[in-house]
Specification:
The chain has ten helices and 14 strands. By secondary structure, the chain is of the alpha+beta class. The protein is globular. This is Peptidase C45 hydrolase domain-containing protein.
């Protein structure tokens, strides 16, 4: 997986991203062009028109993110609107294009683990990158993202990390912060509490579950276009989430788009019992990785592989963060057959 180092101002960070991932960003655009046609019969010009409705709102409310996306466009020599589309792909067509995954947080006396499998279509695996961001006025960030997207899954030097579970509830709100920019905003915070306060204040534009962790706690944030609700750690200091709403949200109906989501939710909780809660053992990083590598119910398992019209969907990477480090191990591909293992830390 390619690592791109980005420094300084938002535009300069974006430009480094655009230059370093120029061909992979084009690959992301080609991938989503096919996705929109396949999923909702929308050609790229129609998608661009939808994105134009978001452009002014983002420029006015979140200018630093707008500037970074402009930098990506300049560096990759692509139209700005195409980069914007990548960054609001969750919101376009009422959130139809969401990633499946299973995530967890686990706090022990000496470790705070935040982990997930990111499940999506095989065709986008080749366009994954690692961004190493050092900004003029924020913490250093290391995250795994799709080329061209400014926010995804990772951690910062303060030991704040973030994971994403897609939840498919109709509707989006362009006055609120798009999901992938919300992920980036978490990684700019000094604590989980600060990240939650910020997201509650601005709102999130589409449905999602954002799992936020630091050394002291994990907080699950379920959002829809109308609501944000928090899931606190249980009595054993765990948080688990798959791809459906666990809490009640007023005037909201979960589409249940992934039928196996409830079974994965139950399975990850059962595995937590097996690896620590019922045995008295203290889970370690190996245990967390094994939980992500579980094949019970295959192919609709936590570690998943399923053939479909566009090769959907499989575990494209797994990440196990220890926020006490802070550090992370990334497994490209399914953890049972990792194509590459990457260690992320902040020592260099």
């Amino acid at each position: 997986m390619k690592t791109i180092q980005c420094f300084a101002t938002p535009h300069e960070i974006g430009r480094a991203h655009g230059v370093g991932a120029k061909e992979l960003i084009r690959g992301s655009i080609v991938f989503y062009q096919k996705m929109f046609v396949h999923t909702c019969k929308m050609e790229w010009p129609a998608v661009r028109r939808i994105a134009e409705d978001w452009q002014k709102e983002i420029e006015q409310k979140w200018p630093k993110y707008y500037s970074e996306m402009q930098g990506i466009a300049d560096g990759a020599q692509l139209p700005f609107i195409d980069i914007l589309i990548l960054n609001i792909r969750t919101e376009i067509a009422f959130g139809m294009f969401n990633d499946g995954c299973t995530s967890l947080y686990c706090k022990t006396d000496n470790h705070s683990f935040l982990a997930q499998n990111w499940d999506w279509m095989e065709g986008q695996k080749q366009n994954l990158i690692i961004l190493d961001i050092i900004s003029d006025n924020g913490p250093r960030i290391k995250m795994i993202t799709e080329a061209g997207i400014i926010g995804k899954i990772g951690l910062n030097e303060f030991g704040v990390g973030v994971c994403l579970n897609a939840i498919k509830v109709p509707g989006c709100d362009s006055s609120r912060l798009p999901v992938h920019m919300a992920l980036r905003s978490v990684l700019e915070c000094s604590s989980a509490d600060a990240a939650v306060r910020q997201l509650k204040e601005v709102g999130i534009a589409a449905s999602a579950h954002i799992l936020i962790g630091d050394k002291g706690k994990g907080i699950g944030l379920e959002s829809t276009t109308k609501t944000i609700q928090c899931i606190d750690m249980d009595e054993q200091n765990w948080v688990f989430h798959a791809n459906h709403l666990l809490l009640s949200h007023d005037d909201v109906v979960d589409s249940g788009w992934l039928a196996d989501s409830p079974s994965r939710q139950q399975r990850i909780q059962k595995l937590a019992l097996e690896y620590g809660l019922s045995t008295g053992r203290v889970p370690d990083a190996t245990d967390i990785t094994r939980m992500l590598d579980d094949h019970d119910g295959f192919p609709h398992s936590i570690c998943r592989y399923e053939k479909g019209p566009l090769g959907m969907d499989a575990t494209l990477f797994s990440i196990v963060m220890d926020l006490h480090g802070p550090k992370a191990t990334v497994y490209l591909g399914r953890p049972c057959h990792a194509e590459e293992i990457i260690e992320l830390d902040f020592k260099c």
